Hints:
This protein is 77% helix and 0% strand. Helix 2 packs antiparallel against helix 3 (82-113). The model has no long low-confidence stretch (mean pLDDT 82). The chain is mainly α.
Amino acid sequence: MTLALATRIGTGYLMATALAVALALALTPVFHDGSPEYPAWRVLNWFMAAGVVAIVAVNGWRYRGAGGAGGAGGAGGAGGDGAAAVDSLRAALAFYGSIALAMLFFWGWFWTLNPDSETGAAVTSHLVYFPVMDVLYVALALSSGRWLWRKASGPRT
């Protein structure tokens, strides 16, 4: 399998999970029965977990290529031209945002996997916590997928 094909598959996965999370987030109030169980999210969280790992990997690759963390390319933060500095800033924001997403997602997901976790205040706090995290997932998955698609297409002319 070529690198271009692998990046296209990764892009498709990120875009599909972003769409699924966005639809589930928007439609949960419509189909949810009011119980503390969310069966659709229990399944979707497994796909999101793989997506979060992919988002961190893609944005780590992007950040390193833009000169972050001692990478070879890009502006490296300072002293570059305007376009390279903007690309470096975008890569840094995407990378650190993906790290924040991974921390939030896995903390929240492992919390819900605990059978004693869904009681009282925890359920109420999850009404705010998970929608915010889901929006962050959708934004980063779409952004990472778009960047990955362009990367697979080769240099733009």
